[in-house]
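// run 5 | inverse folding | seed 20
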């Protein structure tokens, strides 16, 4: 199943589920800052739509309300956001990387971690990939 695309409100709801764990609609609504808090019915409608998209699931019923849990991981949601961002740049990561460097949001430690990840993905120079070995 492809990673689902989340709206800003859906992502904020998911952040609460990922950090606080299973929550009721009231708990989700109250997790928003008071000045930017959406109406209870807005959160309720959004959660029910997320349930239909299999982003969240009902895990139990307490009295007359349900408790919801995340059905997707934070990593899956972030991968989708990053893929969507790169699509805006025609799949090119260079403009994004250049901005991160210029804005000071990319540290030397981040670069070292990226280099390690790249080394794991690509064989050393001159190495013959396993599928070409006989």
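// decoded
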């Amino acid at each position: 199943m492809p990673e689902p695309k989340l709206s800003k409100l859906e992502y904020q709801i998911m952040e609460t589920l990922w950090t606080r764990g299973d929550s009721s609609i009231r708990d989700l609504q109250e997790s928003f800052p008071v000045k930017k808090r959406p109406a209870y019915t807005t959160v309720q409608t959004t959660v029910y739509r997320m349930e239909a998209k299999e982003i969240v699931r009902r895990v139990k019923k307490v009295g007359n309300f349900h408790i919801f849990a995340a059905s997707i991981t934070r990593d899956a949601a972030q991968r989708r956001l990053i893929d969507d961002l790169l699509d805006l740049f025609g799949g090119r990561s260079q403009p994004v990387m250049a901005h991160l460097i210029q804005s000071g949001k990319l540290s030397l430690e981040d670069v070292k971690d990226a280099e390690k990840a790249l080394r794991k993905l690509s064989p050393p120079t001159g190495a013959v990939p396993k599928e070409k070995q006989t």
